[in-house]
Automatic annotation (TrEMBL):
The protein, known as: Beta-xylanase
SLH domain segment(s): 1342-1402, 1403-1466, 1469-1523
Coiled-coil region(s): none
Known catalytic reactions: Endohydrolysis of (1->4)-beta-D-xylosidic linkages in xylans
InterPro entries: Carb-bd_dom_fam9 (IPR010502), CenC_carb-bd (IPR003305), Galactose-bd-like_sf (IPR008979), GH (IPR017853), GH10 (IPR044846), GH10_AS (IPR031158), GH10_dom (IPR001000), SLH_dom (IPR001119)
Documented EC number(s): 3.2.1.8
Residues the record marks as active site: E770 (nucleophile)
Keyword Signal recorded: yes
Keywords per UniProt: Carbohydrate metabolism, Glycosidase, Hydrolase, Polysaccharide degradation, Repeat, Signal, Xylan degradation
Pfam families attached to this UniProt entry: CBM9_1, CBM_4_9, Glyco_hydro_10, SLH
Chain intervals with Low complexity compositional bias: 1063-1073, 1126-1142
Amino acid sequence: MKGKHTRWLAILLALTLLLPSGLLTPIAKAETQANGNIVYHETFESGLGVAVPAGTVNLTAACVVFEGNEDGYAVHIKERSASWHGMDIPFSSVGMENGKTYTITVKGYVASGVDVPDGAIALVQNVDSYNGLYLNSSLEAGKTFTLSGTHTVDTSKDRALRIQTNDAGKDVPFYIGDILITAEIEEPQEIITYHETFDNGLGLITSAGNSKLTPVSDVKFEGNDDGYAVHVTERTLDYDGIDISFSSVGMENGKTYNITVVGYVAEDVDVNEGAAALVQNVDSYSGLYLNTSLEAGKAFTLKGTHIVDTSKDRALRIQTNDAGKDVPFYIGDILITTPKSSGEEEPGEERPPAKEFVPITFENQELGGFEGRHGDEILTITNEANRTEGGQYSLKVENRQNTWHGPSLRVEQYVDKGHEYKISAWVKLISPQSAQLQLSTQVGNGDGASYNNLQGKTISVDDGWVKLEGTYRYSSVGNEFLSIYVESSNNSTASFYIDDITFEPTGTGVVDIERDLTPLKEAYEDYFLIGNAVSLGEFEGTRLELLKMHHNLISAENAMKPSYAYDEQGNFDFTAEDQLVQRALDEGFKIHGHVLVWHQQSREELHTDASGNPLSREEALENLETHVKTVVEHFGDSVISWDVVNEAMIDNPPTPSNWEASLRQSGWLKAIGTDYIEYAYRFAKEVIDENNWDIKLYYNDYNDDNQRKAEAIYNMVKEINEKYAAENNGELLIDGIGMQGHYNLNTNPENVKLSLERFISLGVEVGITELDITAGADNVLTEQQAQQQAFLYAQLFKLYKENAEHISRVTLWGLNDATSWRAAQSPLLFDRDLKAKPAYYAVIDPEKFIEEYDGGGEVIEANRGNALYGTPTVDAEIDPIWNDAPTLPINRYQMAWQGANGFAKALWDEENLYVLFQVSDSALDDSSQNPWEQDSVEIFVDENNAKTTFYQDDDGQYRVNFNNITSFNPEGIEVGFESATKVSGSGYTVEVKIPFKTITPEHNTQIGFDLQINDGNNGARQSIATWNDLTGRGFESTSVFGVLTLVQELDDTVDNENDNENINDNGENSNHNHLISVEGSTNAMSLAHNYKILANLNSSKNSELMTVSNACGGNGGNPPRPPGPGSDSNNNNDTESGNNGTIVPEVTTANNQVTGKVTAEQITQALANAGTGQNGKKQIVIELAKRANAQSYEVQLPAKSLQELKQAELAIKTEFATIIIPSDELQGIPANAEQISIRVSPAATDHVDASAREKIGSRPAVTVNILTDNLTAASISEGAALSISIPYTISTTEQDDAESLVVWHIDENGQPTTIINGRYDEKTGTVTFQAPQSGSFAVAFVTNSFEDTAALPWAKKAIDAMAARDVIKGVSSSSYAPQQSINRADFITLLVRALELNAEAGSEAAFNDVQPSAYYYNELAIARSLGIASGYSDNSFRPGEQISRQDMMVLTVRALAAAGVKLDTDGSLAAFTDSDSLNNYAQDQAAALVKAGIINGKNGKIAPQDSLTRAEAAVILYRIWKL
């Protein structure tokens, strides 16, 4: 059953013989159904699914292709001896519910060799009552059948559906390939924008004027049965009341809303005569005036519509008129909805379709929309640097003052909501010598925004231009604020250039969540809450569905951090926070508050003056009290817990027993002292106790698995709690400890366990507050890494379950990899497309995953690098000798926080090792007494590369801070050591010499080696970046070092494995990566699965796509076709010449012309072995393998053998194209002809005019020639066609507009003519078409510039596709006039063109009102000759009359029949309310088009008498073209 996950054991067995284990990533199949909600869809790709035998039958998984079952997966129902023997689908197994009506469709097949008695039919029946459902279809050998109908379930009588036969067919075995059960989609007529019932307080409403708003819970009145309401009192003016801000509730400019307000006036209120309640729009007070009289003791309702105009108004206001200005009233319910949008043939979209993004190269010397994120950045178009081929300019970015500053570009107009985009920018560093630059995207604006890193790289000035790129799916459009930007996460002053910015759709379309997964919150409902970190963007669409499915608690990722509580003037402002909290409560989530006091993202003015000095203790303490109490009181019991203090402890404190000495030197500590922590908790506790709220107070921190840090936290909480308990009868002040849990693959779960047990021993609860586990890099996660990540998740959740009585919640820090703050390292349970990773399954059942875990594949090898021979001067100046030394990037982080980084280079000679560091860090600190907590670098050396767990005599650790202060481990190794440092404005340089102690180095000597950058901040180490080690054990164990090879010179075999991407002259990645797609199966029960494997193959420097096929039983990658009469269904799969209908002829090459000569014997043998296809013909495949530098391929065939071929076709396969030629279509072969040649070569397009040549671009063009004895062209019989497929890799720009790819026939004069049937086939990666003649053909990309189709998304795609093929034309170059009616002549013309119909038209084809000079004369004559158009009784056609929709239906069905497309006429029109208005002559045709999906109706009507519009005509033509 689709959606079920494949069995890993079967997968590994299937691939063991092909590739190493641990490299496989499943590519899931997708399914959609437009006509209803899918209740059950069985394709049998994973076996029998829920199907069970009925009677004594044999159900066997099989692989057979038939119409409606193109993937080949099926179940064979055999050994039948009674009519009811078949297959049952239990209602309970597929979720069919009592009383509901379902549509059932079953696709089946009877093999050609089966004896089928007359009258045998297949049935679907309801068992056990066998009444009410009788779907039936005749059975015929070698034919498919379809069983389709509806059924209303009655579980009091029935338990299942049964697929069987009647008595005449009781012995007939048959296949079932597809079962689809759907329920009707119940679509709301209105979409709720905002609904306030006041059961959680005031929600998003605010006071207008001087009114007082008081929530109540016991005032019931008509329309307010739950009693919750808001009481509006202390009114003295008419406008005193309630405001509902447009922005708070998501009311958008230009949209129409339905508004309903239910209120009440108490019985004892004195109401003046004429008093009325109102809803008005403020501030303009025009256009909206909903009113109703007020009466004591009576409820009232205000109801109406309003179109929002944000240029004039900001809110809705509920108030009274002047007569009612003193009247207090209750409001119990506010409902704001938008009408459901409707289209014509298809529903429209709310947002206009995305515009095409034009790459920004700055060659026009304009900013292209870029602006500074902060506003003070200096952005300059310059010719100092350029990346664009043939260009001169780029954008220079200077005057950055913070890490987040940089160039930003708004992109919402280029985004279709829910779609994924590939985003890239080239960057070139100016200063410092090294810095991290990253490309990011912002969704939303203000406090509710989310910030998503696409790719970051640490680069140097010497790297030149470096490409940053990544993909992002915009599930939210952030209230129409989306941007991309370049920043530096570790350097606030770095300057750089950017160029060649692209923003392209990936073409993957909108993704859905996996709805058949076990929800995480259900798996752990007996253990602890499951939380997630969110921004406002998570409360939309599929992201909200995923969030709600798996989680029951949220933490605000950013919106509730300290600085977000204030506006720019420093006043409290909770607007954005309130919006997020209300949304979370509305969706049923519990809320954890994060955070009250933190050293980051806080208002510095609360503890530090304008000069950077601490405020007085008294002033800072007063500010702390005001801040904590105001925030806690504002949110009240909307939250269940708070992180009161966050990350107050330094990492790896030297004396953890002294917790106060282990505190971070934050602004609060400097101003108040170490007791600021205790005060923060006391202030929060006072508010909670005063209001009798049940809210837990937490301390939260990261790197909690570090035992020194855990000990310091333990001692702090213990001391504060014991002090408070002594004063308050044993009550705790700090209720819990939050273990953030930002881990990586090197995290030791035993250390996590030690910390957890330590904290539990304090008697507090524990929250796992920000869990993620990094693995992989640059958004690439190998299968091996995914399994290792999952294993660590399993170990952690097993630990959490074992200690669940002490754990309140486990919160994952992000919904999926794409939106994680560590996105490039794929840290979460769901991937970029919201699909479950192995980590999800590990979390769902950790014990099972641990039991089955095989070790995760190969052990990850240590980093390897090279040191070049040479002797520099140690002076912190970069001598030229360093230029050729390979770069060693220092960008692996041991901590969650990622701060300073950089790179190094290494040289060596016979006596010393030399290392040069360039560190990017604009804020240097050496205030700590501990040298490792200062801004510094470290070098680790293991001369014999022994990889021991302890230091030997040849090992050492060397540390140098930015002021050239040194320290060593062990002491005594400093003899002969030299160092020099140089500080710049944005970092520092360190150069060192380390004498070799125990070895005499030579070429290819390998030593153990590592590099480290310590980032100090306020007396604490906030970040550690390394070249190799992620464990933090390098100071005591050489086993965690990388390997450095000493080489005399560099060649291709000794490049550093971790260098930045190698970019060739065309900007392409030249790394030796090969993408191999493997399709395979082991048996019929574990059929074809797709995998992508990334292998590092040193044999080639080109990236290639290789395909290994073993699908569905093996047959060249295709499931076997049903055997035809007399054929051998057990043919083997040999691919040698002549076997299975395939010929691989001997070839010769001369002047780059590849020629394959086929003998008569080979044709005879191939014909004998070829199976008969569904078209009744045998296919002979002739393959010419790709040859280097080939300019043409030619197949030479014996003419006599071709003359004797009957009911066969030739398929000529070459690298340029595949051509299929039916044998009976080769005519005119002279009796004395000896040879027929088929030649394929690239076609020249230089004689095509410039405009057309631009549309062809670099896309393929081929010439196909069919020759007799290499002289005369052999003719194609009239009405026949060549089938041609041209391989083509679609670009990202074309993916969302693939139907604008067309095929042109190019004549000898260079004139293109569109081949209308040409199209891109995504499955085969080819452009396919049928041509009536040989010749030259080119692939082109043709778009239009119609400006009036964007507002009709239901028709735009069809208009674009048909216009690209010249089927339809605009009324001008910029206008299509989609709403204009179309006349009879034009529609007939378009029908004939779209279906490429031809016929001989004599004089009898003419109508008396159609002149031969009319532009539509030929098409109308063809239509009459083919019986499509018959005209009126007076032999007129009335070409200028508008055509009605019902006449369009009749003509369309006739045209399809003329084209050989027969439609079923048993479709139902019952769904259309006006079906009775169809004339009798159009009833069958309308039913046929509805069943075929060509007609969908208009707003529930068939509208037969309406005139057909040009937009509707385009949609109809497009749909029949797609058949």
